Amino acid sequence: MIHFGTGGWRAVIADEFTKANIRLLIAGLCSLMHKEGHDGAEICVGYDRRFLSKESAHWAAEVMAGYGFRPYVINRSSPTPLMMFMVKTRAMPYGIAVTASHNPAIYNGIKVFTAGGRDADRTVTDKIEAEIAQINPDTIKSMDYDAAVAAGVITEHNPTNEYIDSILSAIDVEAIKNAQLRIALDPMYGVSQTSLSMILMTCRCDLEIIHDRRDTLFGGKLPAPNEDTLGPLAAVVMDRWRCDLGIATDGDADRLGVIDDQGQFVHPNKLLVLLYYYLVKYRGWQGPCVRNNSTTVLLDRVAAGLGQNCYEVPVGFKWMSAKMTETDAIIGGESSGGLAVRGHISGKDGIYAAALLVEMLAVTGKKLSALYREIEAQYGALRYAEASFTMTPARKPALQQYLFEQHACPEFENVDHISREDGCKVYFTDGSWVICRFSGTEPLLRMAAEAETDEKAQSYIQTWKAFLSL
Q1: What is the phi/psi pair of residue 392, to 5°?
Q2: How far apart are CA 247 and CA 351, in angstroms?
Q3: Rounded distance between C-alpha atoms, residue 392 and residue 4, angstroms
Q4: Inter-residue contact 220 to 18 (CB < 8 Å)
Q5: What is the DSSP string of 454-466?
Q6: Pairing of strands 433-438, 444-451
Q7: Surface-to-core class of residue 433, CB atoms within 10 Å of its CB (0-12 exposed, 13-18 middle, 19+ buried)
Q8: pLDDT-based confidence at 324, cuts 50/70/90?
């Protein structure tokens, strides 16, 4: 069964991620595009470095060609933001990326993008699922890949330079050159290495790169840049190089992870606050910001202090992109490391975010830790806690019903209000909060909390754990 989550369709390879299901999904997309009047349109097709990604992209292109569309195939593994960039710049109605982003190596998937290079929202994915339900797999049309290339129906391209140039035009290259920064990069065996290293070398940064080859098992680790996975990058930063910054991106390069000059992991909450503060305070930009419901409310404080608004949306970057467009927000971000910036693409881009962070160090002449202390001195400090719990297929339905249909919730004190828009989020009268929700991309139950002390934030998590006997 094909069902889109918060980050597209993802499934275990050879279980539900199969050639038959890929063809079925693309046939459903083609049917929707036909109904929307996009017959014969150019459609971007890209892929990451995962097992079967290239082959899957070709299977998808074959079906598109069979239905009369013109697949614009990126002919090498590339960052997901690059596909979104091409959908936007070439005014395509749709595009796809074969990727499972930061999921474990046994997964693969497909992300769908709409006009403007946006993540397909629930309205679109519901329509695709409805079209899929009407399709007979035995009648799906297709055209042999090589034959379609020979006939000019499928075209192959390498638009990497266009994407790189767009980012270079959006950052202060001269300031970065003058700063002579040392940067350590960890693509986590994913697709950011070419674009990000070219951008930073153009800015005359000294680079040390690890984990840059293709490894479909991602070194036996999760291709997600977090505190648990970035030990090797921290070691490089603190080695004889003594780097100014360590940068990591997830498997498809839409998420960012950072190690500061002291070898410490910088939580994505802090990166989001830092970049918004920098863009308003140092670049002079004006506008609100957007965060999801699992992300720090320190961003709200900073926005208010700068005379701006901060908007909260459910988890899933499709909601983030829509709210950013609606409010003309400067930046939108999430606690998992994804963020988008106005004027680039309408989705998260770890490569562009990394380039902006490097610019921030160069322009301010300050270390990340010093900049964050500057923010906390003005707006106060908050402490964040999070936890994840694996959910078996046998247990999830009952727990889901208990939490979100029976509206079960611990009896917290000093509750201001409770939201069930996306999971169960409890807001407290002192501004602290805790959320419990199911992941839309992995079989996990996630919890996050924020308060003025570590102990208080952790107590909220522990209360939920005890309540659910986890």
Answers
A1: -75, 155
A2: 9
A3: 19
A4: no
A5: HHHHHHHHHHHHH
A6: antiparallel
A7: buried
A8: very high
Cβ-based neighbours of 315, under 8 Å, separated by 6 or more: 6, 292, 293, 294, 334, 422, 437, 440
Distance CA 453, CA 172 (A): 37
- DSSP letters, 323-390, are HHHHHT-SEEE-TTSBEEETTS-SS--HHHHHHHHHHHHHHH---HHHHHHHHHHHH---EEEEEEEE
CB 227 within 8 A of CB 233: no
- Nearest 5°: phi and psi at 121? -85, 180
3-state DSSP helix/strand/coil % of the chain, to nearest 5: 40, 25, 40
The answer to whether 238 touches 263, Cβ cutoff 8 Å, is yes
Tell me the per-residue pLDDT of 283-319, one tens digit each, with 9 for 90 and over.
999 999 999 999 999 999 999 999 999 999 999 888 8
In the chain the domains, ranked by start, together with CATH numbers, are 9-159 (3.40.120.10), 167-379 (3.40.120.10), 383-468 (3.30.310.50)
Torsion over CA of 309, 313, 317 and 318, rounded to 10 degrees?
A: -110
What is the CA angle 374-375-376, rounded to 5? 95
Which distant-in-sequence residues (6+ apart) come within 8 Å of 307 by Cβ?
Answer: none
Direct distance between the N- and C-terminal alpha carbons of the chain, in angstroms, rounded to an integer:
29
Note the pLDDT tens digit of each residue in 253-289. 999 999 999 999 999 999 999 999 999 999 999 999 9
Structural contact between residues 250 and 225, judged by C-beta atoms closer than 8 angstroms: yes
- Distance separating alpha carbons of residues 56 and 2, to the nearest angstrom: 15
Identify the band that residue 7 occupies on the pLDDT scale cut at 50, 70 and 90.
confident
Tell me the one-letter amino acid at 110.
Answer: I
409 CB-near residues (< 8 Å, 6+ apart)? 403, 418, 424, 426, 467
Q: What is the pLDDT of residue 186?
A: 98
Residue 44: strand pairing partners: 72, 95
Burial letters 168-192, b for 16+ CB under 10 A, else e: eeebbbebbeebebbbbbbbbbbbb
